[in-house]
Specification:
Shape: globular
Number of helices: 21
Bound molecules: ligand 6R9
Structural class: alpha/beta
Distance between the termini: 30 Å
CATH class of one domain: Alpha Beta
Strand order of the largest sheet: 12-11-8-6-7-14-15-24
Length: about 650
Amino acid sequence: MGETIYPVPSAWPADALVNDASYHAMYRQSVEQPDAFWRDQAKCIDWMRPFTRVKETSFDESDFGIAWFSDGTLNLSANALDRHLAERGDAIAILWEPDDPADAHRAISYRELHADVCRFANLLKAQGVQRGERVTIYLPMVPEAAVAMLACTRIGAIHSIVFAGFSPDALAGRITDCDSRIVLTADEGLRGGKHVPLKANVDEALAHCPGVERVIMLRRTGADVSMVEGRDIDWHMAVAAQSDDCPAEEMNAEDPLFILYTSGSTGKPKGVLHTTGGYAVWAAVTHRYVFDYRPGQIYWCAADIGWVTGHSYVVYGPLMNGATTVMFEGVPNFPDPSRFWQIVDKFGVEIFYGAPTALRALMREGDDWVTKTSRKTLRLLGSVGEPINPEAWEWYHKVVGEGRCPIVDTWWQTETGGVMISPLPGATALKPGSATRPFFGVQPALVDNDGVVIEGAGDGCLVITDSWPGQMRTVWGDHARFFQTYFTTFKGRYFTGDGCRRDADGYYWITGRIDDVINVSGHRMGTAEIESALVAHPKVAEAAVVGMPHDIKGQGIYAFVTTNAEVEPDEALRKELVQWVRHEIGPIATPDVIQFAPSLPKTRSGKIMRRILRKIGENDVSNLGDTSTLADPAVVDHLLAHRPLLA
Ligand code: 6R9
């Protein structure tokens, strides 16, 4: 099949930060002389005490360690705010668009944001928050969420943001794991006209978190919520008394910056820890080159701050680069499917960065919702979170971007801190569905299941062979798990968990997760987490969860459930279990299919044969492979005979 290739539009290379020739030269230097390359690139941010050391890293067990710029000091909040005040203090830092288009938007200048952050940082200090202390943030997409992040980093506190769609249980687990004494939240969130009871969720979570002493609550909707005397305080009332002068703490480059929980193939979510210097450099440099960003351009990343994309590309990357960053509280299809493109027109957005799942959902609604808007300011589009299917890519390119905007399909992970494989718009010819080439300093490789490196074109497991500044440094509280999870599958290499193909041009095509992680609407979920939620239900004996193809979400959740012997599974129980999982984890974990099964296919040693369940989930049952090791092959026949009808 002939591949479509979209060359770099002719107007780009002359003006872009990087063109094809400079990409190759810079890439070569970045991997051959990493110290020289990163010493130079790290100048894009301000250091309080300059570093002399650059890269001190090893992925080998004998001398394992990752440190970058380790004798330098800096503050990320100062880099995002203070350094802009002299030259562009009155420029808009955040353009906030509320859920309801009838409500007023907000435009917050760098000077105002700086003052808000200082006041909130002083409030945190007044509450006794110390350097290195963990602050849990459970806030909707409001500017105060960015204020809270920047206030934490200003005083050297470690923020841990929990997506405001997570349940009280999920929130409680994350608060407990990182030992937060303080939680920041709002009365309610507002998304697509629906109210999300954030404060009530916090109250429910805190019943299991005796260590939390203080809740600072933002009034967003004015809902009537209960306040616990002596524990809960009102954000605006408390902040009003604070000074807007708060010097930024001098942090060591390797001091912890933030924790973000993410799902893996086993056990409970891991607290991914990023440190200050390497992350700051990575977020700033990737944002600048991948989006060819120049100060003053209106830039919109439509991710939630509850995910890493929101951290690196709504808040930190853009603000370090002096951007005007758009922050949107709502959802793509409310009040109607034109919403995204109306916001683009309202603010004159030049760069738009979104997720394939939203694009697929909008594509289904028809082109009119898009074409009735102007979008003439758009010059660059981005995609993140999951593989973008060529059909959605073409639609994005042709209909949204009117054929004139390059698309940067950016592959990366919570663990990588920022973009790892992506086109650069002035340098890279595009192939729909491919994340194309590695960013500076990134050395991807493909290995087979035995760890043998695949050269040239081929298919395999995606690993990264050497460190980059934005790499996570540990799993909070469990350094052994960090090493075990990422560096033991293929010795001496960072294992991404993704499968990947490399074509004859050296372009990378991510094929999706090859571990027990599924990607639902761009949200990562461990099948083990959903299974443990299901088996926590008193009527459930056993559960196995796999992914299934889903037109909009990319992957859906297919759960096989065995009930306790005395329970007769029925429609009511099915509904109850769906609600149960929503309550245990959150709506993003809602199972699409629950198939009751008298038993699950197991090996004679009692291991569930997930390979077979995955095939059933994928509706690819013509060849189930070797089933001879099954303890009872009849179990599979039963599963096949009782597959629910899929819409
Ligand atoms: C940034 C983010 C990471 C996983 C990753 C991969 C998938 C992300 C992708 C992509 C194909 C892309 N993924 N971007 N797959 N093409 N452009 O999403 O972080 O939530 O940690 O998810 O998402 O499977 O391993 P995170």
